[in-house]
Amino acid sequence: MTLRGGFERAWIGSHRSVCCWVLLLACYFLIASAAKPKMPGHTHLNSIRIDGDISLGGLFPVHARGNDGKACGELKKEKGIHRLEAMLFALDRINNDNELLPNITLGARILDTCSRDTHALEQSLTFVQALIEKDSTDVKCLSGGPPIITKPERVVGVIGASASSVSIMVANILRLFKIPQVSYASTAPELSDNTRYDFFSRVVPPDTYQAQAMVDIVKAMRWNYVSTVASEGNYGESGVDAFIQKSREDGGLCISQSVKIPREPRTGEFDKIIRRLSENPNARVVIIFANEDDIRRLLQASKKANQTGHFIWVGSD
């Protein structure tokens, strides 16, 4: 596993211990994903906890969205595990710096969103559990032994999530308890509304800038007839809406059709989308605002239909 540039050199040169964390973490997620809940209401199969004086929450799509009724699917290396590595690396650097936070250790409770907003919401209730329970302790007696008393951990902030739909779902809960949230990848313009998401912030620009850049690319290539494809949800639909709005403002660009990928695609759904895009052979350029899982399956369907080289795909981030 590598990270780019100076980050990569720092990783290799002085923090090899983090690699052990990552290997253990990957094994944990692999085992946990196959585990069965031990009791009704157990929702934290894919998670990791690091003890500290102050705890930060973390939301990462370690697994892709599952199919056939399953919440979680295959492991996501780049968008999931690699980003999780970055958080572990940052915690490691901070905790080993005696001047940055002297006598304070940062801990974490990191959860797997499985790229699904409803699943992430269920998992994120962990972050507010300590604030909503009247009795702040959880007493368990195992095999008739002495009671084990654990206090729900309280997080002071949450890092994440990745998908805009997930961040929006979680932000609506966290703001009620005044828990700040910082996303590393959510770009939906809706999240720029400070009156609704006053405890949310992000380190990436909203899709309005990206949509303008994509319109500029299309105009520079002298393409004037395009189709659009969007994943159902805040990210995809808002992105395409922004692209269409920008194209109308600039003029000279016509939209052949706008296709939406359902949140839960049925078998053959992507083959159907390719056939629909093929109905107008003059609109070869396709603007895509979709998550990487949907894009992968869409390109596979294009290849299956022997359309490789026919479409010109212009993808978002």
**Parts with pLDDT < 50 across at least 5 consecutive residues:** 1-44
Individual helix count: 9
Strand neighbour order, sheet with most strands: 1-5-2-8-9-10
The 3D shape can be described as elongated
| Succession of helices and strands | HHEEEEHEHEEEHEEHEHEHEHE
Largest sheet: 6 strands, mixed
Taking all residues together, what is the mean pLDDT? 84
> Structural class given helices, strands, pairing?
alpha/beta
Radius of gyration: 22 Å
Residues in helix, %? 40-55%
Record field, number of beta strands: 14
Distance between the termini: 22 Å
How large is the share of residues in beta strands? 15-25%
Summarize the structure.
Helix 4 runs parallel beside helix 5 (164-174), helix 6 (207-220) packs across helix 7 (234-250) and helix 8 (269-278) crosses helix 9 (292-304).
Describe the structure.
The protein is an alpha/beta fold. Helix content is 40%, strand content 21%. The chain is built from nine helices and 14 strands. The strands form four sheets. Strands 1-5-2-8-9-10 form a six-stranded mixed beta sheet, sandwiched between helices. A four-stranded parallel beta sheet has the order 12-11-13-14, sandwiched between helices. The protein has a two-stranded antiparallel ribbon with strand order 3-4. Strand 8, helix 5 and strand 9 form a beta-alpha-beta unit. Helix 2 packs across helix 3, helix 4 runs parallel beside helix 5 and helix 8 crosses helix 9. The radius of gyration is 22 Å and the shape is elongated. The relative contact order is 0.09. The N terminus is likely disordered.
